[in-house]
């Protein structure tokens, strides 16, 4: 594990070092000047709304902040004097900690709000809540049950709204996943990611993002657990537009074949506890094991957004050198920081553009 982590970090360091002679001002990739890409004032409810260049810019900012703060030990107060309202209808470990610690590390003030702390949708409408919070803080991150709640907040707010998770999408998770893969492989374009599990909000976000980064996506879900049809149609359109492959099957081994990355998630999300017994039966045969990986590429890796249960992936895979889950979890912090900085400022990264 240590050798693999050292190797991955060494690849990133060498890549940065080899580009130090280039000026980041006006740095371009494929003819696009990424320093001219601005997201300031935007919301992020779904990566469906973001162009390939905008997603790459967020990942670049995230990697830059990680390098400057973690590795160079710099103190950056990019969000000094700003505050974030963190609305949590659902409990959380990674989303809460990444947002609180990340915003504070950049000099800002995080405010954690549960459904017991505010009147959202109970004694006060989402419309009124959005207008009130717009006068108190600079940005809102909301982890909610219904995606329509986010849409209502975004419609009425005069400040950016970030989707911290909804029943339809989980964009901040996917940003962390792709930063992790970029760090490990050195680039993203041409990778094949295989999703083996439920057709849920995390998968939906993969489908809205992967084609824009040149990533092929293979999906295996049990019958009755396929992704939302409108998301499938949009993903098919994006794959055609960006020249990537998208396939859907109910056979986990078919999806895993010749893949670079195997990914799964919980089979029983919050709010589905009463369905647990039936879901475990329906997902029989979907556990990711070394046998699953035997048909993937020799250097295959594994991702899981956590929390993990053994029926989804066994210990042999989860705690193996192939597993990137804990780097993935840490990158939730750097990517939420990168996203918030991008939505609130015109920050230009100091490190060279990473390879996509």
Automatic annotation (TrEMBL):
Annotated Gene Ontology cellular components are: mitochondrial matrix
Q: What is its EC number?
A: 2.1.3.3
- GO MF annotation list: amino acid binding; ornithine carbamoyltransferase activity
Check the record and name the PROSITE patterns matching this protein.
CARBAMOYLTRANSFERASE (PS00097)
Q: Which Pfam families match?
A: OTCace, OTCace_N
Kind of enzyme, top EC level?
transferase
Please classify the protein's predominant subcellular localization into one broad category.
mitochondrion
Residue ranges occupied by any Aspartate/ornithine carbamoyltransferase carbamoyl-P binding domain in the UniProt entry: 42-183
Q: Does the keyword Hydrolase apply?
A: no
- Report the subcellular localization: Mitochondrion matrix
**Pathway where it operates:** Nitrogen metabolism; urea cycle; L-citrulline from L-ornithine and carbamoyl phosphate: step 1/1
- One Gene Ontology biological process: urea cycle
Going by the UniProt record, its keywords in alphabetical order are: Amino-acid biosynthesis, Arginine biosynthesis, Mitochondrion, Transferase, Transit peptide, Urea cycle
Q: Which residues form the Aspartate/ornithine carbamoyltransferase Asp/Orn-binding domain?
A: 190-342
* PANTHER family given in the database record: ORNITHINE CARBAMOYLTRANSFERASE, MITOCHONDRIAL, ORNITHINE TRANSCARBAMYLASE, MITOCHONDRIAL
The family assignment reads: Belongs to the aspartate/ornithine carbamoyltransferase superfamily. OTCase family.
The identity of this protein, by name, is ornithine carbamoyltransferase
Gene behind this protein: otc
């Amino acid at each position: 594990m240590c050798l693999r982590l050292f190797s991955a970090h060494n690849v990133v360091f060498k890549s940065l070092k080899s580009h130090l002679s280039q000026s980041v001002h006006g740095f371009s990739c494929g003819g696009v000047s990424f320093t001219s890409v601005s997201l300031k004032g935007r919301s992020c409810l779904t990566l469906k709304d973001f162009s390939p260049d905008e997603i790459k810019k967020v990942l670049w900012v995230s990697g830059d902040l990680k390098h400057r703060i973690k590795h160079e030990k710099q103190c950056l107060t990019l969000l000094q004097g700003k505050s974030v309202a963190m609305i949590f209808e659902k409990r959380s470990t990674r989303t809460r900690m990444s947002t609180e610690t990340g915003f504070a590390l950049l000099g800002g003030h995080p405010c954690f709000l549960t459904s017991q702390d505010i009147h959202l949708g109970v004694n006060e409408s989402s419309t009124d809540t959005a207008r009130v919070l717009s006068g108190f803080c600079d940005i809102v991150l909301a982890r909610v049950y219904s995606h329509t709640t986010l849409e209502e907040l975004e419609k009425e707010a005069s400040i950016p709204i970030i989707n911290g998770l909804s029943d339809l999408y989980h964009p901040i998770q996917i940003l962390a996943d792709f930063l992790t893969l970029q760090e490990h492989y050195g680039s993203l374009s041409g990778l094949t990611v295989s999703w083996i599990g439920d057709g849920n909000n995390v998968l939906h976000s993969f489908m809205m993002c992967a084609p824009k980064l040149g990533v092929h996506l293979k999906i295996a879900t049990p019958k009755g657990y396929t992704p939302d049809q409108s998301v499938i149609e949009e993903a098919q359109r994006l794959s055609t537009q960006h020249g990537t492959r998208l396939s859907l099957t109910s056979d986990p081994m078919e999806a895993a074949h010749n893949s670079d990355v195997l990914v799964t998630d919980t089979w029983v999300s919050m709010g589905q506890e009463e369905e647990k017994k039936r879901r475990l039966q329906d997902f029989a045969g979907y556990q990711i094991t070394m046998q699953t990986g035997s048909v993937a590429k020799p250097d295959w890796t594994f991702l899981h957004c956590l929390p993990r249960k053994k029926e989804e992936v066994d210990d042999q895979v989860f705690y193996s050198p192939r597993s990137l889950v804990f780097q993935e979890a840490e990158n939730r912090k750097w990517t939420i920081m990168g996203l918030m900085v991008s939505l609130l400022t015109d920050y230009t990264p100091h490190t060279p553009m990473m390879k996509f």
